[in-house]
């Protein structure tokens, strides 16, 4: 069953609600700041007035040299998140379609994403929506995580890169 969701760009006015429902204050603060300077768009799915998921359309250059080499200038779908109790209701698909529409409006012809090798459920969703392996092997993505205790920790994950023509 597909949920009736509204997907729209997040705003500073949404920050407190996003953090209260989805957590990850650092992620939302950073994403909204990047959005303000033109580095991407934070898209939020709303269900019954509450955040039901989010995705960040990252328009900044890739950090990974192999992606910059093979897919220069392609935006990336990042940090797609829908809380577990809401899985299977079409929210993730709605967020992906909204991100693709936004990328098209910004003039992009293709889009990319990375998915962890062990995240088979997400990979099946992406492939069902038309994403295909980029054909250049796996990539190790690294990022700084921010646990609830306020510390910072370096994280990494080996991922497949998938691409879709818009």
How would you portray this structure in words?
The protein is 30% helix and 34% strand. The protein contains five helices and eight strands. The protein has a single domain (6-165), classed as 3-Layer(aba) Sandwich (Aminopeptidase). Strands 1, 2, 3, 4, 5, 6, 7 and 8 form an eight-stranded mixed sheet that branches.
Features:
166 residues; 8 strands; single chain; globular; 8-stranded mixed sheet; alpha+beta; Aminopeptidase
What is shown here, in short?
This protein has 166 residues and is α+β, with helices and mostly antiparallel strands. The chain is 30% helix and 34% strand.
Q: What summary fits the major beta sheet?
A: 8 strands, mixed
Based on secondary structure, the structural category is alpha+beta
Q: Which outline best applies? A: globular
At CATH level 2, the architecture is 3-Layer(aba) Sandwich
Mean pLDDT: 93
Number of domains: 1
Beginning-to-end CA distance, first to last residue? 25 Å
Number of helical regions: 5
Poorly predicted sequence stretches spanning 5 or more consecutive residues: none
CATH topology: Aminopeptidase
Topology, number of strands: 8
Strand content: 25-35%
The H/E string reads EHHEEHEHEHEEE
């Amino acid at each position: 069953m597909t949920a009736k969701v509204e997907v729209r760009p997040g705003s500073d006015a949404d920050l407190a609600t996003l953090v209260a429902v989805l957590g990850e204050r650092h992620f939302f603060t950073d994403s909204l700041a990047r959005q303000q300077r033109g580095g991407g768009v934070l898209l939020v799915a709303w269900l019954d007035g509450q955040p039901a998921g989010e995705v960040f359309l990252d328009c900044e250059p890739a950090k990974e040299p192999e992606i910059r080499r093979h897919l220069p200038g392609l935006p990336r779908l990042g940090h797609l998140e829908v809380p577990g109790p809401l899985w299977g209701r079409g929210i993730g698909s709605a967020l992906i379609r909204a991100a693709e529409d936004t990328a098209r409006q910004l003039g992009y012809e293709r889009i990319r994403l990375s998915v962890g090798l062990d995240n088979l459920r997400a990979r099946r969703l992406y492939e069902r929506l038309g994403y295909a392996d980029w054909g250049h092997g796996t990539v190790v993505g690294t990022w700084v995580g921010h646990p609830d205790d306020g510390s910072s920790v370096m994280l990494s994950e080996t991922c497949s890169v998938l691409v879709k023509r818009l």
